[in-house]
């Protein structure tokens, strides 16, 4: 598990992080490896990142 400062440092070595860049951490509901029947992202799943008062960033897994 990595801290936010380490994640930002690592990402910024390979890309320019601009104002408004979203860095999502954690896992979607249901993918916990310790679960008896874990689920993983698959084609067609939708990832929706929302910030109140700003809007949503929606991506479809393919």
Structure description:
With 62 residues, the chain is α+β, with helices and mostly antiparallel strands. The protein has one domain (4-60). The chain is 15% helix and 19% strand. The protein has one helix and two strands, in the order H-E-E. It has one helix spanning 4-12; strands spanning 46-51, 55-60. The chain has a two-stranded antiparallel ribbon. Strand 1 and strand 2 (55-60) form a beta hairpin.
- For the termini, the CA-CA separation is 26 Å
Whole-number total of structural domains: 1
Largest sheet: 2 strands, antiparallel
Element-by-element helix/strand order:
HEE
Query: Which percent band covers the strand fraction?
Result: 15-25%
Helix content: 10-25%
* Overall SS class: alpha+beta
Shape: extended
Uncertain stretches: none
Count helical runs. Answer: 1
Number of strands: 2
Widest sheet: strand ordering:
1-2
Average pLDDT taken over every residue: 87
Could you tell me the radius of gyration in angstroms? 14 Å
């Amino acid at each position: 598990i990595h801290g936010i400062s380490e994640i930002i440092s690592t990402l910024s070595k390979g890309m320019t992080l601009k104002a408004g860049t979203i860095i999502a951490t954690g896992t979607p509901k249901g993918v916990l490896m310790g679960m008896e029947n874990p689920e993983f992202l698959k084609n067609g799943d939708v990832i929706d990142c929302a910030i109140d008062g700003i809007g949503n960033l929606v991506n479809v897994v393919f």
